[in-house]
Each structure stands twice: as structure tokens, then as C-alpha cells.
């Protein structure tokens, strides 16, 4: 979720209102935004935007626009956004696309701006918008990369060409010497960061002006001359390249509307493609590409839970920037040019909710009758817990992730490590080796607890009822999650006899019959470990923990322990 | 302490001492032993307890030197000292060499030599030219007589006080006593203080109180099974206990307070008509995200947000028709009325196995078999690729649920949120703000006011998108909600570090109070 930094003064100026933090926080909720840090000494506020489908809100102008509209301000006129096919004379402002780019980075959108000299706040805002749009919405420049240029230094038309990576050379922004485009991928920091997007392509995308002067190497880096925008520039050329036409056009409209709100005149640009696109071979940008969404008043009323008059609905949606046409009960909405988050009529329903205000929907006590039930495993687990508590055990609860060392190497002798590793679910991308395995048994955690608790008054009796996961080739997922009971006793007197009595009492009160079978489990002292057999199936084991295991955990008192698969004895 | 408490704090030994003596009596341990038939240990206990309570006070302390007879001394008294035996031997058997005497009497050569030295000097015995011991005067020396007198007096374990002995006796005693390491000496020299005590005014008051209360020190301590069987309890007086003495610590079997909290939340949800669901920890990308209409290119689905299972990497299959319907919904909206995400759905990636990252997985999986109307919930362990610290864990609980019904809507959703805020969190102030979750539309966050910590987010909720419900066969609206249960538990238990919830320290868990 993006966080943006913006000047509070600029925000208030766009808002045409001033307010305190409390009021601002309340107003921000209509943009699903939160005041992350209130204004600091430099006049900067930090705001977190929660809606990943509203990139139009990730700038000062865009956020302020939504807040202003919700307070009832009229929609600004974004007449520079044309409809597909609409005749617009852009003069020499054209971008001519090379056929060689179709397989590499096929689409581009562009416009020019002119107005007063750009100041530092606006330049910073523009850079931040570029970063957030291209990183969060443009999938780290893969689907959207944006460039800003000094149009005074350029001669139209702009050419978007497929360049030879080795033969094409220019001075990239931030350096003073010429490099080949291929060398930029390894030698320029931006090349190192984003080079992988184009590295494998036979040709690289390149933007030049009509004289062949380089604008940039999208999506990597601008040129050091035309691409070096500074405070004081007043005529800019802005372009975006990418792989997905709708998101590109969307981002183009967002930036154009922001700059229009900042007082600049937006000058559209014609893009000429040598190949077919969803909008034809000639596209004028910024372009309104969205399709209207149709729904009905009853649909909206059903989901929101109250009657909504037609006027009320239109007013509410207007506060979200949405234009609404209501005919009878039919509703058709047109999103504003800077929004592309209407996939389904439910998206209109949510805008109606926010536009009308949460406070206009009083909570209603639910009326459907349903029977509540705990899961059978939960009920059985509670019976087990109450018996264990009666036997004097303290209940514990542990995390489920751990290391190979704790789950396998400290518990088992080395001869068993490979087999145990294969029985555990392992994480392919662990954050650290401490969280690399999902536990297949509760015993390791009980031993960890014992090893760190020598200061606690003895005897120690501890247990956990929780999940374990074991590999199982017969399962669709290759593993099974089971409900398990792990129990441990530690004391000078702790031994087979003690845990044997506890297991016996547990099964008596659970009303389950079992038999014991001698087990050769290497975690236990030979001859002092038993398998619990219920209905012919091994349901668990218990015994005296082997001193070698105890030593590896640094435990200096005798320990007896047991584990029971509760699903087996419950008969699941 | 009140007078009554003081009386109850008295041990029967103390009671007996207090009752036995008057204000003018001088009391010492020897006297108490004799008067009350206490052994020395009981006597010392009674005196030290009463002194600590200031009922007895030290009257006088006298330093004394005494001689205690040792086992060797008792043997000398019985069988004679080496001097006496050597003299007797020579008188009886005639002259003999020192080794012959030693051998015949079973004494060390060295001891016989030194005894002869003294006897020869005192003119009792002598040695001839052949180095044979012969009788000289033949009469015991004065020293020998004094030693014999001392031994006879002390015989039977009596102490001899140095200040009661004559100068001659003291001189004789110096040769046969040692301060420490008394082995080899018939007497041990002991220096000690002899203390006498008297009752204080408080002691006299206590005595009066005891008399008034009729306490004798003969009261019964424990009621025994024998007393119940033979009826002797009827005549018995039971000693009153001091109920303010701190009891000893017990370590009982006990539930974990965090687990109890989770149980209470579950019980509460059951009481509100919710049925519990549960499922595997290992899940597929399909159920974890695809079925929730999160596009496969969504930023929250990066490799660094989910734990992938190493082996096997993929599930064998995804249940149909859900796989095809979900895939079509992602691609073009299928029959849901949605535009879809317009990309090629990856059917291999969707089988990728992960550790479930959100409880909503089970909400989605429950939909195909859910009843209408229906309410379901689960408290599920979830896994996130996070650096573990006070506010992040790599595995933690989420409580999630769904409500299906022909007539559920935003207002019923708010009704549920209000119910959770009041019933689960005890909140009095609740507010709802628009939220964003990829799988719900509209989406609402519920915030409640904590009396100390202020406003915080209780959970997220919304109405499942039709792109989520319809591919899973559900045509009615479905409310979905999730609660940050671990954070609520921290507040309930008065903790401030999530790691504490899963503490492996047995003592910490034992001491932790529930709420």
C-alpha cells in the first residue's frame, strides 16, 4: 500500500480549505486514506493510501481532488481528454512508433504541458507520482514507465524506435560520458535496477526527437540533456511506455489531470502505430478509454440495505467523480478519466456508499436464524485439555515454524535426519533458517520450553493441543494437517511410569481403549518407549526421552514425553 | 498484630514457658528442661521465639569455662588411666621393658614411654641398667590421685566447672584437657556463655491473656484419623492457627490464558450463531488468492509476501468446476457481470503450494458447501513473510468469518460489526470507515475506542465480490469479516509484545494471569 509525502500547504491549496488533523483524518476516509504522520517542521504530512486500484489518489493533486469533490466542489473540466476517434488537431505534436517495438514494449502515451515555471514542490510531487505509479501500479516499470522532458529542446515529431543495443550510444542522466544502451544496463544504477525488463530483447526501446537527439531509453533512463528537467522549466513533454494499453492510458490521464489541476495547459499528442491496437493505429492521448457501467437502483439498494432516491444517488456518485445517468431504475455511470476501477456494478455500489456517507447507513441487527457450532476437533481438543489440566499440566501454545536444528537435529540421532527431513514440510523461501520448517510434532517445542525453564519450580508438566503437518504422498497437497496433543514431564522422578499413568488416565476419561507396543523410537531410551495402538492404528507414542536428545537441548533433568494424534483417536 | 493474633501465633512450647514462670523468676535452659521436661532443642526454640517476640528478655550473661568428660575419659574412669595401669602391671608382674608393657597392656609404645617419663619423674617407677621398668615408691603420685578424683567426679557425663575446682585440680586438669580435637584427651575444655532470662511486661500480659483465654499449651495441633475413630476429639481443645501466615506456593495444572481468550472468542461467535470451520495449513495459490479474485500479478502476491512449500511445489489438482470458473472470471469476468482482469490465468501457478497467508482462504473454501442462510467462522493459524518483532510474527492467528443470506447487506454487515465490537471487545464507541480488500466490495473497516490506547482497527470486512462468490456456486450476497485477534488478545492480557503470546518460558506462562 503506497505511502506518499506531501506539502500540507499544497494540499490545503488544492482543497481550497484548511482544517485540523482531526477533520483531515475524517475527510481522508472517503479516499480510504490514513494520516500516517501529521505535519512535521518542514510542512510535510505522510499519508497512507489503502486502495491499490485508485492510483489517481497517490499524488497531492489527485488526493485533494477526491477530497474536494466529496465536500461538494464541482468536477474540473478535463476537456483535453478526447474520446477514441474524436478529431483532434495536435499539429506537429506526434509520436511515430517503430514496427520493431511490437514484441518488445509496444505502447506509448504522451502529452505536452505549458504554463508557469515549475517550482520545487511541484517537481518533487511529479517525481513522487512517477515513482508510485510506475512502482506500485506499473509493476516496477514493467507495464508502465514514465519520462518527463524539456520540450523547448526538442523538435517534433518524437520517434519511438527499436534501437540496436550496442550501436546506439548517448549520455544518460546522472553520468557525463556516452555509453552504449547495453552498457547502461550494467553500468548505470537504473540499468542495474530495471535492466532485466528489456535485457533479453533483440532491440531496445529508444525515444528521440526528429533530429535524432535522444530523449530516453525507456524504461531505464532519460538522456542527460533533454531528459534533465529542472526547477524553472515551463514547457514539458511527458510520455509513458508499456505493455498494457489500458493501464498506460490510465496513468497518462492521471498525470495530465494532476498537472491541469496545478494550473498547466495540457496539449494532446497523436501516437502513430504501424500495427493495430485496441484503439486503432492512430491514438490521441490523453484518451478516455473507459467503458460505462450499467446497473439498477434496486441492485444498489439491495446491497446497501436502504431505499435511495435517484437524485440522492446521482449526488452521492458525483462526490466520487462519477457521472451518472438514471433512466427509470436503470443506472449508467461513466468513471472520470483518471479512474479505472469499475470492473463490476458492485464497484458502483461502493462508490455510492462512500459518496452518500457511512453515517447514512445505520447498522441493522441481523435477523436470519442459524445454529452455532464448534468444530468436532475443537470440542474433542477441549475435552483433552481439561483432562490434562486435571492431571496437573500447564497448557502452552507455540509458533508452528522452526529450524531444522530444533525440529530434527537436536531431537533425533544423525542416522534419522534424512528421513525426518523428508517427513517435514519445508519452506522454499524462508526469511531465515529459524522459520524454515513447519513442525511435524509438538515434542521439539516442549523440549525447547523445558530447556529454557530450569528456573521454574519442578516438577514441570506441560502440554499443547495444536496442529502438526506431515508429508503424505497420497494427499493432493502432499501433506496432511493433523490435530495433535504433545505432553512432557520433567523432574527428578519423571519417567516411563509417570507418563504411563497419565496416558492411562487420559484414555480412561476419553472412553477410548488402547494397547501398547514396544517401540524402537530413537528419541527415547531403548525399552522405555511405547506406541499407542487404537483400533489397529498407531495413534501416538510415549516414553523416557533419550539422554542424548536431552543433552542436545541442554536439559539436565529426566524427561518423559508423549504425543497423540487426536484425529486418530477421535475417529476422524 | 492484635493481642489475639499474638496469642494465636504462639507455639505450644512458648505457651507452656509463659504460663510456668512469674515476673521474678530467673529462667535458664537448664531450668526449663527440668521444670517442663523439654529437651534442649525444644527449650532453645521456645526461648528464641519468645525472645524474638520480646516476651522474654536476657537478664544476665555469664561467661563459663567447663570441662566435659570425653568417651576416652569415661574409659579411663572405668578401666584406669595408662599411668595407673602401668603401675599396676609392674607391681603385679615384676619388672619389664617398655615394649613388653605396651604389648601386654595393648597401648602404643609412644604412650607408654610418655607415661613412664612422668611416673619416673614423680618417683613412682624407675628404670634399671637393663632398661627394665621397676617399682620405685610404688605409691600413686599426687597428680595421679587428682586425675583419678576428677575422672570419678565427672564419670557419667557430668560437667566440671573450672571455677569450682581447686588450684591443684585445675593444674591436673590442664594436663588432661584440650580445647578442640579432644581425641586423645579425657576432658574437653568448653568456654560458653550461660544466659538467664526473665519475663518482660509484655510477657506477663501475654501470660494473663493466655490464662483468660484458657489456653494451656496442651491443645491439639492436628485432627487425626485416630481421634475421629476413637472419639477422643470430643474432649480435645484445638489450637487456633495464625491465619495470616503466608501460604506456600502451589503450581497447579492450568489452561494457557491466551488459549482461553481464543476459546472465549470462539464461544462468543458460536453464541451468535456461527459454525466453526477449519482446514489445512498448506494451501494452494488457488484458494489462498485466485479464488479471492486477487489477480496473479497483484503486488501482494510477490515471492516476498508468501511462504512457498519446497516439496512438493504443486498440488496435483484443483477441484473442478471451481478451477475453470475462477480462471474464466479472472480472464474475462465469466458469467459474473465483471470485466475480469484481462490476462491469461496461469493454471500451473494456481496449483503452487504455500503456507496459507490469510484466514479468508477457509471462508472461500467453505462457500461451495455452505447453507443459506449460513454463518461460519474460523480461528486459523496464518503465515507471513515478516521479520519477527514485537508487532510481527511469522505465524499468528486470524479470526475470519462469513454470513450468507438472501437479505444480508451493508447495514446487516454494520450490525454484525457493532455486535463484535460490543460483545467481543467490550467497546462502547464504534466507527466504520470505507476500506479496501481485493475480495470485498463494498469494504468497511471497523474501529473501536480502547479506554487507554485510543482508537484502533478491530477488523476489516465487506461484501464478497460476485467474482469471488459466483464461481464457487453462491448466488446470494456474502458478508465477510476478519478480526485482528492477536492484537485483541494482547490488550486483553495486558501484554505489549506479540511474541509473548507464544512464550516458551514455563515460569512466565505459569505466572501469567488471565482476564
The oligomeric status of these chains comes to heterodimer
The count of β-strands of chain A is 28
What is the overall pLDDT average of chain A?
95
User: Helical residue percent of chain B?
Assistant: 25-40%
The proportion of residues forming helix of chain A, as a percent range, comes to 25-40%
**Biggest sheet of chain A: strands, sense, closure?**
10 strands, mixed
What can you tell me about this protein's structure?
- The complex is a heterodimer of chains A (572) and B (515).
- Chain A is elongated.
- Chain A is an alpha+beta fold.
- In chain A, strand 8 (169-170) and strand 9 form a beta hairpin.
- Chain A starts with a strand and ends with a helix.
- Chain A contains 17 helices and 28 strands.
- The longest helix of chain A is centred in the first third of the chain and has 18 residues, at 120-137.
- In chain A, helix 8 crosses helix 10.
- In chain A, strands 4, 5, 6, 7, 10, 11, 12, 13, 14 and 15 form a ten-stranded mixed sheet that branches. Chain A has a seven-stranded mixed sheet with strand order 19-23-24-28-27-26-25, with helices on both faces. Chain A has a three-stranded antiparallel sheet with strand order 1-3-2.
- Chain A has four domains: 3-70, Phenylalanyl-tRNA Synthetase, Chain B, domain 1; 94-285, Phenylalanyl-trna Synthetase, Chain B, domain 3 (Phenylalanyl-tRNA Synthetase, Chain B, domain 3, 3-Layer(bba) Sandwich), CATH 3.50.40.10; 293-360, 2-Layer Sandwich (Phenylalanyl-tRNA Synthetase, Chain B, domain 1), CATH 3.30.56.10; 376-570, BirA Bifunctional Protein, domain 2 (2-Layer Sandwich).
- The model of chain A has no long low-confidence stretch (mean pLDDT 95).
- In chain B, strand 12 (430-434) and strand 13 (440-450) form a beta hairpin.
- The longest helix of chain B has 15 residues, at 257-271.
- Chain B contains 20 helices and 15 strands.
- In chain B, strands 7-10-11-15-14-13-12 form a seven-stranded mixed sheet, sandwiched between helices.
- Chain B has three domains: 1-55 and 200-247, no CATH class; 69-144 and 157-169 and 181-188, Orthogonal Bundle (Arc Repressor Mutant, subunit A), CATH 1.10.10.10; 259-279 and 358-511, 2-Layer Sandwich (BirA Bifunctional Protein, domain 2).
- Chain B has 515 residues and is α+β, with helices and mostly antiparallel strands.
- At the A-B interface, helix 8, helix 10, helix 11, strand 19 and strand 21 of A face helix 13, strand 7, strand 8, strand 10 and helix 17 of B.
Amino acid at each position: 500500500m503506497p505511502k506518499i509525502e506531501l506539502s500540507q500547504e499544497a494540499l490545503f491549496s488544492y482543497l481550497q480549505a484548511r482544517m485540523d488533523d482531526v477533520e483531515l483524518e475524517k475527510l481522508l476516509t472517503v479516499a480510504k486514506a490514513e494520516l500516517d504522520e501529521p505535519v512535521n517542521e518542514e510542512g510535510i504530512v505522510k499519508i497512507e493510501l489503502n486502495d491499490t486500484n485508485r492510483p489517481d489518489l497517490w499524488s497531492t493533486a489527485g488526493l485533494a481532488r477526491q477530497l474536494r469533490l466529496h465536500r461538494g466542489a464541482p468536477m474540473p473540466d478535463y476537456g483535453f481528454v478526447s474520446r477514441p476517434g474524436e478529431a483532434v488537431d495536435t499539429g506537429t505534436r506526434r509520436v511515430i512508433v517503430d514496427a520493431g517495438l511490437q514484441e518488445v514494449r509496444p505502447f506509448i502515451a504522451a502529452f505536452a504541458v505549458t504554463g508557469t515555471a515549475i517550482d520545487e514542490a511541484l517537481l518533487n510531487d511529479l517525481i513522487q507520482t512517477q515513482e508510485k505509479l510506475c512502482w506500485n501500479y506499473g509493476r516496477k516499470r514493467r507495464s508502465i514507465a514514465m519520462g518527463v522532458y524539456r520540450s523547448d529542446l526538442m523538435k517534433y515529431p518524437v520517434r519511438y524506435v527499436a534501437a540496436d543495443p550496442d550501436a546506439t550510444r548517448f549520455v544518460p542522466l546522472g553520468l557525463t560520458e556516452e555509453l552504449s544502451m547495453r552498457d547502461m544496463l550494467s553500468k548505470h544504477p537504473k540499468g542495474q535496477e530495471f535492466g532485466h525488463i528489456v535485457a533479453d530483447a533483440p532491440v531496445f526501446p529508444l525515444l528521440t526527437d526528429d533530429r535524432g537527439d535522444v530523449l530516453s531509453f525507456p524504461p531505464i533512463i532519460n538522456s542527460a540533456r533533454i531528459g534533465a528537467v529542472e526547477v524553472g522549466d515551463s514547457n514539458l513533454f511527458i510520455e509513458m511506455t508499456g505493455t498494457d494499453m489500458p493501464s498506460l492510458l490510465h496513468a497518462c490521464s492521471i498525470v495530465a489531470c494532476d498537472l491541469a489541476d496545478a494550473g498547466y495547459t495540457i496539449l494532446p499528442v497523436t501516437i502513430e502505430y504501424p500495427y493495430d491496437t485496441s484503439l486503432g493505429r492512430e491514438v490521441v492521448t490523453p484518451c478516455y478509454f473507459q467503458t460505462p457501467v450499467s446497473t439498477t437502483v434496486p441492485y444498489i439498494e439491495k446491497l446497501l440495505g436502504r431505499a435511495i432516491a435517484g437524485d440522492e444517488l446521482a449526488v452521492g456518485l458525483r462526490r466520487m467523480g462519477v457521472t451518472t445517468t438514471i433512466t427509470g431504475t436503470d443506472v449508467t455511470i461513466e468513471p472520470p478519466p483518471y479512474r479505472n476501477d469499475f470492473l463490476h456494478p458492485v464497484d458502483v455500489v461502493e462508490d455510492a456508499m462512500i459518496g452518500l456517507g457511512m453515517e447514512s447507513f445505520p447498522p441493522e441487527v441481523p435477523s436470519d436464524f442459524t445454529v452455532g457450532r464448534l468444530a468436532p476437533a475443537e470440542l474433542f481438543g477441549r475435552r483433552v485439555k481439561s483432562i490434562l489440566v486435571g492431571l496437573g499440566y500447564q497448557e502452552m501454545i507455540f509458533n508452528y515454524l522452526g529450524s531444522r536444528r530444533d525440529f530434527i537435529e537436536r531431537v533425533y540421532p544423525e542416522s534419522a535426519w534424512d528421513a525426518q527431513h523428508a517427513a517435514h514440510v519445508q519452506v522454499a523461501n524462508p526469511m531465515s533458517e529459524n522459520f524454515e520448517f513447519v513442525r511435524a510434532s509438538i515434542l521439539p517445542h516442549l523440549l525447547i520450553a523445558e530447556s529454557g525453564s530450569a528456573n521454574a519450580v519442578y516438577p514441570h508438566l506441560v502440554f499443547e493441543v495444536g496442529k502438526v503437518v506431515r508429508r503424505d504422498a497420497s494427499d493432493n497437497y502432499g501433506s496432511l494437517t493433523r490435530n495433535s496433543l504433545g505432553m512432557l514431564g520433567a523432574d527428578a522422578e519423571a519417567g516411563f511410569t509417570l507418563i504411563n499413568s497419565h496416558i492411562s488416565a487420559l484414555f480412561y476419561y476419553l472412553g477410548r481403549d488402547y494397547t501398547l507396543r514396544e517401540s524402537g523410537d530413537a528419541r527415547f531410551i531403548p525399552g522405555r518407549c511405547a506406541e499407542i495402538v487404537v483400533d489397529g492404528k498407531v495413534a501416538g507414542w510415549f516414553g523416557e526421552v533419550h539422554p542424548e536428545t536431552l543433552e542436545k537441548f541442554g536439559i539436565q533433568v529426566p524427561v518423559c514425553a508423549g504425543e497423540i494424534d487426536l484425529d486418530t483417536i477421535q475417529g476422524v | 498484630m492484635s493481642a489475639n493474633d499474638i496469642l494465636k501465633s504462639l507455639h505450644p512450647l512458648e505457651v507452656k514457658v509463659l504460663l510456668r514462670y512469674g515476673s521474678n523468676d530467673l529462667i535458664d535452659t537448664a531450668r526449663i528442661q527440668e521444670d517442663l521436661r523439654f529437651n534442649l532443642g525444644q527449650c532453645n526454640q521456645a526461648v528464641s521465639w519468645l525472645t524474638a517476640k520480646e516476651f522474654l528478655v536476657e537478664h544476665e550473661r555469664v561467661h563459663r569455662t567447663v570441662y566435659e568428660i570425653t568417651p576416652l575419659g569415661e574409659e579411663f574412669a572405668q578401666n584406669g588411666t595408662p599411668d595407673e595401669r602401668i603401675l599396676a602391671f609392674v607391681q603385679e608382674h615384676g619388672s619389664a621393658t617398655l615394649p613388653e608393657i605396651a604389648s601386654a597392656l595393648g597401648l602404643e609404645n609412644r604412650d607408654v614411654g610418655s607415661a613412664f617419663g612422668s611416673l619416673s619423674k614423680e618417683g613412682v617407677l624407675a628404670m634399671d641398667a637393663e632398661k627394665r621398668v621397676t617399682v620405685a615408691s610404688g605409691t600413686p603420685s599426687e597428680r595421679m590421685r587428682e586425675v583419678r578424683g576428677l575422672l570419678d567426679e565427672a564419670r557419667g557425663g557430668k560437667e566440671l566447672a573450672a571455677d569450682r575446682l581447686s588450684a591443684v585440680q585445675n593444674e591436673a586438669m590442664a594436663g588432661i584437657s584440650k580445647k578442640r580435637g579432644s581425641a586423645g584427651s579425657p576432658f574437653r575444655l568448653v568456654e560458653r556463655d550461660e544466659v538467664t532470662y526473665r519475663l518482660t511486661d509484655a510477657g506477663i500480659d501475654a501470660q494473663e491473656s493466655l490464662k483468660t483465654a484458657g489456653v494451656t499449651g496442651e491443645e491439639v495441633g492436628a485432627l487425626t484419623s485416630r481421634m475421629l475413630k476413637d472419639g477422643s476429639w470430643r474432649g480435645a481443645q484445638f489450637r487456633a492457627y495464625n491465619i495470616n501466615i503466608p501460604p506456600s506456593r502451589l503450581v497447579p495444572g492450568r489452561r494457557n490464558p491466551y488459549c482461553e481468550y481464543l476459546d472465549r472468542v470462539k464461544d462468543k461467535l458460536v453464541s451468535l450463531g456461527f459454525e466453526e470451520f477449519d482446514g489445512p495449513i498448506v494451501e494452494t495459490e488457488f484458494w489462498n488468492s485466485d479464488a479471492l479474485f486477487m489477480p496473479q500479478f497483484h503486488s501482494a502476491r510477490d515471492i516476498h509476501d508468501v511462504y512457498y512449500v519446497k516439496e512438493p511445489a504443486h498440488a496435483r489438482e484443483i477441484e473442478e468446476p471451481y478451477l475453470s470458473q475462477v480462471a474464466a472470471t479472472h480472464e474475462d469476468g465469466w458469467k459474473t457481470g465483471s470485466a475480469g482482469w484481462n490476462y491469461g490465468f496461469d493454471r500451473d501457478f494456481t496449483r503452487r503450494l504455500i503456507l496459507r497467508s490469510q484466514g479468508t482462504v477457509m471462508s472461500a473454501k467453505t462457500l461451495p458447501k455452505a447453507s443459506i442462510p449460513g454463518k461460519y467462522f474460523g480461528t486459523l493459524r496464518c503465515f507471513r513473510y515478516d521479520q519477527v518483532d514485537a508487532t510481527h510474527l511469522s505465524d499468528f492467528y486470524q479470526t475470519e468469518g462469513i454470513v450468507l443470506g438472501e437479505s444480508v447487506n451493508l447495514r446487516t454487515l454494520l450490525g454484525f460489526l457493532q455486535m463484535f465490537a460490543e460483545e467481543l471487545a467490550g467497546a462502547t464507541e464504534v466507527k466504520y470507515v470505507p476500506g479496501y480488500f481485493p475480495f470485498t466490495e463494498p469494504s468497511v473497516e471497523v474501529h473501536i475506542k480502547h479506554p487507554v490506547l485510543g482508537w484502533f482497527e478491530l477488523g476489516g470486512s465487506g461484501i464478497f465480490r460476485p467474482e469471488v462468490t459466483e464461481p464457487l456456486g453462491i448466488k446470494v450476497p456474502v458478508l465477510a469479516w476478519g478480526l485482528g485477534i492477536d492484537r485483541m488478545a494482547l490488550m486483553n492480557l495486558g501484554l505489549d509484545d506479540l511474541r509473548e503470546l507464544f512464550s516458551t518460558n514455563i515460569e512466565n506462562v505459569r505466572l501469567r494471569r488471565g482476564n
